[in-house]
Amino acid sequence: MLITHDTRCALDAVVDLVNTAPEDDTAPDGLPDVAALADFVRKHDISDVGVLSEFDLSAVRRVRGRFAGIFAAPEPRTAAGLINELVAAAGTTPRLTDHDGYDWHVHYFAPGASVADHLAADCGMALAFFVVAGEQERLRRCEAPDCRRAFVDLSRNRSRRYCDSRTCGNRLHVAAYRARRKEAAG
Question: Rounded to an integer, what distance in angstroms lies between the CA atom of residue 61 and that of residue 56?
């Protein structure tokens, strides 16, 4: 599956956005305030965003919840329906652009769109490409029991199970090794 630079950027943004959501009522929100949203926008080089407000923060949190639903979708038809609703609500307006030193790519958000609509359109379309390609199962959640972070499995054989093999994957492999050693000892 060919993933262009702009699609990859949108995938990174949507994964990071979904992972800002608190996992339960005791966990902190990764987007606690407008300053955190501004940091998110800067980190992901999200263009054409004006002055951010509490309204933007609230709207981005709502979009984040809808993206989480796409990662949890049990099958492509459900994911497609959620993506269609998200992209349609954003008022998608595809246009070619070559800004900030990047070659030609497509922006799906309308000029002057809010940051929430910008994310919904561009990130929604990036996820749509996976459904269209029959690759919706690559939109995953970490299989570590104490982690449910979202990620996109871009491995050749669709075998990635953890959000980060150095943390979640390694921790589980070490625990399994220790359990085998303990069982063998005794």
Answer: 9
Residues forming beta bridges with residue 96, ordered by sequence position: 106
> Collapsing DSSP states into helix, strand and coil, what is residue 31?
coil
* CB of 76 closer than 8 Å to CB of 136: yes
| pLDDT value of residue 95 | 85
Task: Convert the pLDDT of each residue in 18-34 to its tens digit.
Answer: 999 998 888 899 999 99
Dist. CA 64–CA 120, nearest whole Å: 9
Cα separation, 167 vs 13, in Å, equals 21
Question: Which of 18, 40, 30 is closest to 126 using CA atoms?
Answer: 18
Please determine, for residue 179, whether its predicted confidence score (pLDDT) is greater than 70: no
Question: Cβ distance 126 to 53 under 8 Å?
Answer: no
CA distance 114 to 79: 23
Q: For residue 124, give every residue at least 6 positions away whose Cβ sits within 8 Å of its Cβ, in sequence order, or none.
A: 67, 83, 86, 87, 90, 92, 108
More confident residue, 138 or 3: 138
Model pLDDT, residue 176: 64
Count of positions (residues) in the chain: 186
pLDDT at 133: 94
